[in-house]
Amino acid sequence: MSKLITKEQAEQLDDRYVNTRTSILETALGHEDSRNFYYSIEDMKKFIKHVEDESNANGYENIGVRIFLGAYPANEDGNTLSTLFLTATRDNGLVNSKEIEPMNFAGPGRKKY
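Predicted structure:
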């Protein structure tokens, strides 16, 4: 798989994110934010199958998945936490397939890579 990176590259990406963005976000938000998210392999497989099935039913070609950043409404402490959601795409990612339900509700985290 040509899109794999090394453990060292992943650590560099994580460190660079922390060093260039974490303090800006915490200052702007006034609290620590989520910075990684967990989906089980089973959830990912189910979502991919959902995208494939719905795309096939609609005759879509060159399908994929786009990952968006989002933010939940304020919790009981008044904090808003980041999230991400996955949405289906078609035509090699040129078009979001908005009629196919996206996936959200990952487990948020603040773990270091």
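Summary: DSSP finds two helices and five strands in the chain.
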